[in-house]
Design goal:
Order of helices and strands: EHEEHE
Helix content: 10-25%
Low-confidence stretches: none
Number of domains: 1
Structural class: alpha+beta
Largest sheet: 2 strands, antiparallel
Strand content: 25-35%
Mean pLDDT: 97
Distance between the termini: 5 Å
Number of helices: 2
Radius of gyration: 10 Å
CATH architecture: 2-Layer Sandwich
Number of strands: 4
CATH class: Alpha Beta
Oligomer: single chain
Bound molecules: iron/sulfur cluster
Shape: globular
Length: 64
Amino acid sequence: MKVKIDYDLCMGDGNCAKVCPEVFVYDDEKMLSRVVTDPVPPEHEEAVRQAAAECAPEAIVVEE
Ligand code: SF4
């Protein structure tokens, strides 16, 4: 699985970093999350799917 954030859509609420902190880290200065582990390790794929489902602006782009 590959994952990226579309910064045209991300509203910087940091929810993805709460749902899956192993893959998404919130940057307090830029007020955005970034992906720190791509490709996604198999054990975190489910949490990434959950983060994508919860991302209101649908900014998390997952490639299975
Ligand atoms: S959950 Fe979505 S909108 Fe919120 S920081 Fe993550 S990518 Fe951005």
